[in-house]
Amino acid sequence: MALLETPLCDFGTPAIDFSLPGIDGKTWTLEQCRGPNGLLVMFICNHCPYVKAIQERLVRDVRELREHGIHAVGIMSNDPADYPEDSFDNMKRVAERCGYPFPYLFDASQDIARSYGAVCTPDFFGYNRNLELQYRGRLDASRKDAAPTDARRDLYEAMKQVALTGQGPQEQIPSMGCSIKWRDR
């Protein structure tokens, strides 16, 4: 498990379209996932301790961001052949257990993760209503363990600002987590 940090936000980069199967049996596109004020694209998985540490807070923040017109989508791009905990069936179990309030999609080819430049789980891409990148930072100060309950909600505050102004904060702290588990090409 390689620990990686996300690169700095490349403000204004357009969101990349996708068409991926969801655990709900539907195929989802970028357009179907977006909210009136923006979209949070999250590369997450089931086995990563960094994702597990934030699941409860992630669900809370995504629910609250919907009230501000920001919708979210979770994309799992790891190779389940090497990481069985990240299988499609386990994606369903995790989403149900955690109450994911967003589509949870499987990027079997890993093409979407590559096109976005995702490097780790979790990796957050926050877009404004024009689908221009405004946030590429962390959820909060959590690492392999959840941060204190009074920790600053970096992602929530940033995306709330995006909903109100169309622009993310200039100062962003990178997300960190396990490397994406790439398949040999």
List the helices and strands and how they pair.
Blueprint: E1 3-5, E2 19-21, E3 27-29, H1 30-33, E4 38-43, H2 49-66, E5 70-76, H3 88-98, E6 104-106, H4 111-116, E7 120-121, E8 123-128, E9 133-135, H5 154-165, E10 176-179
Parallel strand pairs: 5-6
Antiparallel strand pairs: 1-10, 2-3, 4-8, 7-10, 8-9
Percentage of β-strand residues: 15-25%
Class from secondary-structure proportions: alpha+beta
Mean pLDDT over all positions: 96
Q: What oligomeric state best describes the polypeptide chains here?
A: single chain
The secondary-structure element order is: EEEHEHEHEHEEEHE
Number of helices: 5
Please report the first level of CATH classification, the CATH class.
Answer: Alpha Beta
What name goes with the CATH superfamily? Glutaredoxin
Which spans of ≥5 residues are poorly predicted at pLDDT below 50?
none
Shape annotation: globular
What level of helicity do the residues show? 25-40%
CATH architecture: 3-Layer(aba) Sandwich
CATH topology: Glutaredoxin
Tally of structural domains: 1
Largest beta sheet: strand ordering: 1-10-7
Alpha carbon gyration radius: 15 Å
How far apart the termini lie comes to 19 Å
Main β sheet profile: 3 strands, antiparallel
Number of strands: 10
